[in-house]
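Re: [ENG-882] Designed sequences occasionally contain unexpected residues at chain ends

Forwarding the minimal case from QA. Structure tokens:
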């Protein structure tokens, strides 16, 4: 059983090896840690504010996943993402 199975049907945040930040409902995973997200959005951070790009149903290759975590729905609702300013994450090198 995949370690990600415990997050199925929950809203999660995925950070990819190239620094992308994706948020969505985890619909499934497999033995290669490929991840399927529904209602997926990408958060693109910049010093001018954070842009939310709606992607819909999205598949992420397992070898590009850096980390997956459950979202705290209450805290998520309190954040005005367009007002968040940050440098984009850089790529992770192994």
């Amino acid at each position: 059983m995949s370690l990600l199975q415990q997050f199925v049907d929950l809203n999660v945040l995925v950070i990819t090896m190239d620094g992308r930040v994706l948020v969505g409902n985890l619909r499934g995973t497999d033995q290669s840690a490929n991840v399927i997200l529904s209602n997926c959005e990408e958060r693109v951070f910049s010093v001018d504010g954070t842009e939310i790009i709606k992607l819909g149903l999205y598949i992420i290759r397992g070898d590009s996943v850096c980390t997956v975590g459950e979202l705290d729905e209450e805290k998520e609702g309190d954040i005005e993402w367009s007002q968040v300013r940050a440098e984009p994450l850089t790529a992770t090198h192994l």
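QA comment: On inspection the terminal residues look reasonable. The radius of gyration is 13 Å. Proposing we downgrade this to a documentation issue.
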